[in-house]
Design a protein that fits this description.
Blueprint: H1 2-42, H2 51-62, E1 79-81, E2 88-94, H3 99-109, E3 114-119, H4 122-131, E4 139-143, H5 151-154, E5 157-161, E6 167-171, E7 173-174, H6 179-182, H7 184-192, E8 196-198, E9 207-208, E10 214-215, E11 220-224, H8 226-229, H9 247-258, E12 262-266, E13 281-285, E14 288-293, H10 301-314, E15 324-329, E16 358-360, E17 363-368, H11 371-384, E18 389-394, E19 414-417, E20 423-426, E21 440-447, E22 452-461, E23 468-471, E24 473-476, E25 479-484, E26 490-500, E27 505-508, E28 518-522, E29 549-551, E30 556-557, H12 560-565, E31 571-573, E32 579-581, E33 592-596, E34 605-607, E35 611-616, E36 621-625
Parallel strand pairs: 2-3, 3-4, 6-8, 7-9, 11-12, 14-15, 17-18
Antiparallel strand pairs: 1-5, 2-19, 5-6, 10-11, 13-14, 16-17, 20-21, 21-25, 22-23, 22-26, 24-25, 26-27, 26-28, 29-30, 29-31, 32-34, 33-35, 35-36
Helix pairs in contact: 1-2
Length: about 625
């Protein structure tokens, strides 16, 4: 009995001690936060840690608040993380200083999507915008407090169930001890009535930041090794409360919560103090990387080149092809110096970047600095993203110099995808050599939660005004194909147009109706540099549909998907084992008017097992596969 009393007293003492310690920790956290708030009233909180916050982070992580309104287990179904160039319903910002820059963001975004502004005085913000002649018909206010302007780093991430079904949000633990910022995704999810998944409870705890994450929309994501450093158990300041995960465990959590199957992580840049990937790299689409460029051997240039070599040697696009690179020069400081003091660059210049831009549907907002460099950047964007409205916003103005805090446009914005995305993806057609084959094939992934009614391949010859529209063929599983020949040897302009079963329409490129088309050359002039080499991608998956194609390498593949998985993107419909003359066909005394292939083009000879359509004089049409 005596031992039982002693045991009970010990337990009561331990409980009381833990309560006292928790209370003390909370008091210290409030004290440090108060100091930080005083600091932020005099100056905007930086993108990195301010000196006080370094002491706060360990305590903050130890006492991270968990709301009952969020979901801390990963989704039990397949999810896909949205890419930035997809259709969005809202752009989110926090009204925390740098009002002239935020004003220009709102001004140029309201005609593309809603703009949701987090602020603690909506009336004052509304008056400010109207006094600066900004239309506010599409502006909504979230009446909450935030700690800082860096929305990208602490904001929401859009995911979709089963690629295009229900929309949800994902929230990581912000890598700064800023509780109002960290709770923003919860407030937004409540405002929009969305489910919010949060990586805040073991074994799924992850500290991460949106500026160090970009997704291709199809299961591939990019980050610097900061994601590893901040989840290794000690973080950058030898804390004891950072999540402690191996690289494999980080990958597994990102797959479970965000559907990331390939997580590409690269060494941090030596002169980028915050180590965020959006300061030097941006995905423009699922095939194209926009990358900052420095004079040879200078500043972060060598590490960027090493990282690019790592990507190109080890990873491919969704379509199994190498990523295409577009380089955009980073401007120096007014002194001519680039970041990082070196023997040939003795002055440590400020970090400036053009990759820190944001898509807002058909508009792209780009940070600008000085005209002599901005004009080059604008031209590069316009050539890379035809049809988009490229808008430059000064981020280096005296008294409004946000780039001095290591951030720009992408850093202070985030987006929310639409509720019903109509997803279109395809590998752009390369310049085509007619010696290999007159046929050009295109395979597209097209999905919508209601299903797809029709997909059209629209093309025109360079110099023409009108487009010709051709129905693509449904191959099942969301895949649509078309095979074309063209009557002119010239540049071909094209885009895709899809219609969902519920009537929703989408174009790819999104700016197709504004002139934003893809192009390729259809000419014998392209033959000198043409290549056709089969190389199997063992991880590539294609549908088991028997629709043979003859690859440019002379090999018959079961369908165009198998050809693509073997690095063969030029092919003709039907196998490579010969043709059948039309005179050899038994038409059973019926009068044949015409035979066309799946594109509607009349054919005079056909391949074995080719899908063709017989048009008879009595008005009937029969689909046949010739054996």
């Amino acid at each position: 009995m005596y031992k039982d009393y002693i045991f009970i007293l010990e337990q009561l003492f331990q409980i009381k001690f833990k309560l006292c310690m928790n209370k003390l920790i909370n008091i210290l956290l409030i004290f440090f936060l108060s100091i930080s708030c005083l600091f932020s009233q005099e100056d905007v909180l930086p993108k990195g840690f301010d000196p006080v916050e370094e002491m706060m982070m360990d305590t903050y992580l130890a006492n991270f608040p968990i709301s009952q309104d969020i979901i801390t287990e990963p989704p039990s179904f397949s999810v896909r993380t949205m890419a930035e160039w997809e259709e969005i319903q809202a752009l989110t910002i926090a009204w925390e200083g740098f009002e002239p820059i935020l004003t220009e963001i709102v001004r140029n975004a309201v005609d593309q999507s809603k703009v949701i502004i987090a602020c603690d005085n909506p009336g004052q913000v509304e008056n400010y915008l109207q006094n600066n002649n900004v239309e506010t018909y599409n502006v909504e206010y979230l009446d909450i407090s935030t700690n800082s302007i860096w929305m990208r780093d602490y904001g929401q991430n859009t995911i979709y169930k089963n690629d295009v079904d229900s929309i949800m949000l994902v929230d990581w633990i912000y890598n700064r001890p800023r509780p109002d910022d960290d709770s923003f995704p919860e407030s937004l999810a409540d405002y929009l009535d969305f489910d919010l998944y949060q990586t805040s409870v073991n074994p799924y705890q992850v500290v991460a930041t949106g500026g160090n994450f970009m997704s291709d929309g199809f299961g591939t994501a990019f980050s610097s090794n900061l994601i590893i450093d901040e989840n290794d158990g000690s973080g950058p300041y030898n804390s004891v409360n950072y999540p402690n995960h191996s690289v494999d465990e980080i990958d597994e959590i990102m797959y479970d919560f965000m559907g990331i199957e390939t997580y590409i992580k690269m060494p941090v840049l030596p002169y980028d103090a915050i180590h965020h990937i959006d300061m030097h790299m941006k995905l423009l689409d699922e095939e194209t990387l926009l990358v900052s460029e420095y004079p040879e051997g200078m500043s972060d240039g060598p590490q960027i080149e090493a990282n690019l070599e790592y990507i190109l040697n080890n990873f491919t696009t969704k379509w199994g092809t190498p990523f295409k690179l577009i380089r955009i020069p980073s401007p120096p400081s007014t002194s001519g110096a680039y970041p990082g003091a070196q023997s040939f660059n003795p002055t440590d210049g400020y970090y400036r970047t053009y990759t820190n831009s944001v898509f807002v549907n058909k508009t792209v907002l780009v940070p600008f600095y000085r005209e002599e460099y901005d004009t080059i950047a604008q031209r590069i964007y316009e050539e890379a993203l035809p049809g988009y409205n490229i808008v430059g916003i000064d981020c280096d103005d005296s008294g409004n110099n946000i780039i001095a805090l290591s951030g720009a446009i992408h850093c202070i914005t985030h987006s929310v995808g639409v509720n019903d995305p109509l997803l279109i993806s395809y590998k752009k057609i390369e310049d085509h050599c007619l010696t290999v084959s007159p046929y050009v094939g295109l395979q597209a992934l097209v999905k919508h939660q209601s299903g797809i009614s029709e997909v059209f391949f629209n093309f025109r010859y360079s110099g023409d005004t009108e487009f010709t529209s051709v129905n693509m063929q449904d191959q099942g599983g969301g895949m649509w194909n078309v095979t074309m020949t063209f009557d002119e040897l010239t540049e071909i302009e094209y885009y895709l147009h899809a219609i969902a079963n519920n009537g929703k329409e989408q174009y790819r490129p999104m700016t197709a109706l504004e002139g934003g088309v893809n192009t390729f050359m259809y000419s014998f002039d392209e033959c000198d540099d043409s290549e056709c080499a089969s190389e199997l991608d063992p991880d590539c998956v294609y549908l088991a549909v028997e629709d043979p194609v003859c690859g440019c390498d002379g090999v018959t593949y079961s369908n165009s998907g198998e050809a693509a998985c073997n690095n063969i993107f030029e092919w003709t419909q039907g196998p490579c084992d010969g043709t059948i003359e039309l005179d050899d066909l038994d038409l059973v005394n019926r009068q044949l008017i015409k035979i066309v292939d799946i594109t509607g083009k009349e054919v005079m000879s056909i391949y074995k097992t080719q899908i063709i359509f017989f048009i008879f004089s009595d008005g009937t049409i029969e689909r046949k596969i010739i054996n």
